[in-house]
Amino acid sequence: MKSKSLYTMGAAACAIALAFGFPKNSRGDTAPDPAVATLVDDLQAQQKTLADNQAKIDAKLAAITETLRQARIFVSRGGK
Fold first, then answer.
1. With DSSP H G I counted as helix, E B as strand and the rest as coil, what are the percentages for the chain, rounded to 5?
2. How many Cα atoms are found within 13 Å in the side-chain-facing hemisphere of 74?
3. Which long-range contacts does 58-66 make (Cβ < 8 Å, 24+ apart)?
4. Helices and strands, number each (H, E), in the chain
5. What does the DSSP 8-state code read for residue 69?
6. Using CA atoms, how far apart are residues 32 and 38, in angstroms rounded to an integer?
7. pLDDT per residue over 2-55, tens digit each?
8. What confidence tens digit (pLDDT) does each residue in 50-73 have?
C-alpha cells in the first residue's frame, strides 16, 4: 500500500510541476517555428523507423525462440 501512495504522491507532484512550472507564452504569437516543425517531423520519422526495427527484432527473436523450443523437444526425445 505504501508504494501505491508513493506513486500517487509522485504523480500529483508531477502534475503540479507541469501546471505551475512552465511560463506562459508572453509574446502572443502562436505560429510554430519552421525549424522546430522540421525537427519534430525528423523526430517522428526516426521514431517510426525505430518502431519498425523493433518489430523486426521481435519477430526474429520469436522465430529463434520457437526454433530453440523445437530443438529442446527433439533432444529430449532422443534418449540415450
1. 80, 0, 20
2. 6
3. none
4. 2, 0
5. H
6. 10
7. 556 767 777 777 777 766 766 665 566 666 788 898 999 999 999 999 999 999
8. 999 999 999 999 999 999 999 999
Q: Which three cell numbers stand for residue 61?
A: 527473436
Structure-block grid coordinates of residue 23 = 511560463
Q: Hunting for cell 519552421 — which residue is that?
A: 34
| Residue 77, number of CB atoms within 10 A of its CB | 7
Is residue 1 over pLDDT 50?
no
pLDDT value of position 75: 92
b or e along 22-34 (b: 16 or more beta carbons within 10 Å of the residue's beta carbon)?
eeeeeeeeeeeee
